[in-house]
Amino acid sequence: MTAAKPLPLPDQDTAPFWEALREHRLTVQRCERCGHHQHYPRLLCTGCGSREVVPVEVAGTGTVYATTIVRRAPSPAFADDVPYVVALVQLDEGPRLLANVVGCPVDDVAIGQPVTVVYDDVTPEVTLYRFRPVDAAEPPDGEGSGR
Fold first, then answer.
1. pLDDT band (50, 70, 90) for residue 3
2. Measured distance CA(127)–CA(113) in Å, rounded
């Protein structure tokens, strides 16, 4: 039996983000005062310090900014997944998100590669985002998700 993977625990600042993911929508925060986009969700704008941050839906497209291949599972829960890609994805709107890149061989993921979001319904309550190369076919539900 494989160990269970940790799941996110939403709080008052992150709940809108996780709710949007369940609806297969990717959101980041935008400051109503200065227009700065940021991720991860937090109380204050990292651009100007304002509390006027609101979730906004983004296109879910961007490019791989940095990448690494995990070849050794960090815990037994991830043993069936190795090797897998962890990347920093620069969204077209600006923020960078840490994510898995799926839908292609791990050695094919490259810095500067265009990617698009895919959704992984891990449980009825939790959906995670991942990215796949723009030129890769979207995997059928539940396949290639890195679960």
1. confident
2. 24
